[in-house]
Amino acid sequence: MASSGASIGHPRPCGCKGFRTCLVCEVEFGAVKPGTSLTEDSRSYVYCALCGKAWKGNNSDMWKEHPNHQGEPYDFPGVYIELDYIAAEEQLELIRNMDQLPWDPSQSGRRKQNYGPKCNFKKRKMKPGDFNGFPKFSEFIQERFRKTNILDGFMTVEQCSLEYTSERGASIDPHIDDCWVWGERVVTVNVIGDSMLTLSRYMGNHDRYNLADVVTYPRILSDDGLVVWRPLHADSSISCETPRKKDEEIKFERTEGNDNTVDEGCSDNMLPSDNGNSEESVEDISQDDSKNVCRSFTSYNFIGNDGANVSYPIVRVPMPARSLLVIYGAARYEWEHSVLREDITGRRVCLAYREFTPPFLKQGVKEKLGSEVLEKAANFW
Question: How far is residue 240's CA from residue 292's CA, in Å, rounded to a whole number?
């Protein structure tokens, strides 16, 4: 059996590399999985998919007790759940069609089918590659997005099928989806397998995940999920509500006392990485004439019944089969999200969707490249 150090440093046949592991490489190569279990944390809260409040506890089924919750609820904005978003018949048809296509090994025991442009978030480079749209059998989901209020103006540029199984010990480590290319709304359609999304407060550097770019973007959704800005579409009259004049200076606002944060997995492209120095600075991107006067996302502290500050709890968000999950705003940019191994009890398959940030849309500095990808994204084969 190979030593843990030797196996950790190199890619393995199971798809894992670096310090990410699955049960296969832990057994066959002696890799050691860092402790990531959060479910027994005394700071845990469970988000209720029915009332939209967070309740203290760590039982993943707590939300099903609605409306008979115990204790005092707390607001946790930036999470939207719609149960029974797809029908049981649609669920079975999706799985049947996905399983007719090849699954590629991914990290931490996952398998994937990825449809979207090739991205290097560290170097801030993107190219269409061989991307040529999405499988026809999934088109009805994107059509349904157009009838979902919170997804008004959402233009899919990446669709990723993800499979988690308990046999492989599948999971995904805490991360924030890249903020240079992927927009505010992080969308997941859970096809089969009930699971949980675990959110933990990010306290790291803004250079990671390209978070520093966020203050240059207009906010798409209000805290209560209302669309307050619609992106400019490459081939329509959809426009920003309050466009900035050409000679108007962009102003940035940050929450006082919140230097470490700025106001959700899909493919391996969105896994954590230390970006370091990038080829484009925030100042370069902010020169785009289509930008609005922006504001940062506020921080949210949880105050216990005894008045003690218990800021930054662990928030557990249910992901039932056939449901839609959207994270946005503070939940998207201030909290890392993960799927814990212990929350995969069988086979879970989901479809993850991403949209562009404003620089890749009409009148943005990356409009030409964005338009090329969006044209391909309109194709269903």
Answer: 8
Structure-token pair, residue 248: 């108007």
Cα–Cα distance between 83 and 138 in angstroms, integer? Answer: 18
Percent of the chain with pLDDT over 90: 57
pTM above 0.85, yes or no: no
Per-residue pLDDT, averaged over 144-163, amounts to 96
pLDDT at 297 exceeding the cut of 60? no
Tens of pLDDT, residues 27-68 = 777 766 665 555 555 678 999 999 999 999 888 899 999 999
Tokens of 267: 């493919």
Nearest to 265 by CA among 205, 195, 330: 195
Residue 380: both structure tokens together: 């269903």
Q: Report the amino acid identity of residue 35.
A: G
Q: Whose CA is closest to 209, among 175, 259, 184, 185?
A: 175
Cis previous bond, 231, omega within 30: no
